[in-house]
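lol ok so funny story. i was supposed to be doing the assay writeup but got distracted and ended up predicting the structure for this chain instead. priorities right. anyway since i did it might as well share w the group, maybe its usefull for someone
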Amino acid sequence: AARAEKGTITPAAMASWKIVCDPAATESEHYAATEFQRLFKAMTGAELPLVETATADASAVWIGPDAVARSGQPTDRRALGEEALRIRVGPKAVCIDGGRPRGTLYGVYEFFEELCGVRFLTFDDTHFPKDAAARKIPYGTHAVNPIFAFRWSYYGESSRYPEFAARLRVNTGSDDPK
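and the output, tada:
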């Protein structure tokens, strides 16, 4: 589901922002913040700093339900299933939160795939569109609640590379808390 508001922002316009992840966040949410940082740098060349706190009016990417709550956005993690996610985009904030344990991490991957055009092709090949930094990301809310509780693709890469399996939203390949 998506709800559009007037306006857009580009990743290039976000190059001076911060990534906020609450110190009480889960290991998966901290990993989601580092994945956002890594993918954003690969896409734009800009490395956003990771911080634990920021003022609600700061231009920032807020990762995880605790950070999103600090941003001033309403959040109810109980309303989100284990892997449900919500992405909210505005002129000075991108808020990504989701259910625990994996929703926020899947939200980061959803942001890059659906809103920036990134594609996770293999464990060592991620495609970034040439225009990714200039891509117009519409303001509004993007939410996903997966239909299937069990997702597994029987590819050798999914078994050998749990990080790649997570990017594909395979939720059965590892017990790693991140």
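The longest strand covers residues 2-9. The CA atoms of residues 51 and 100 lie 21 Å apart.
back to the writeup now i swear
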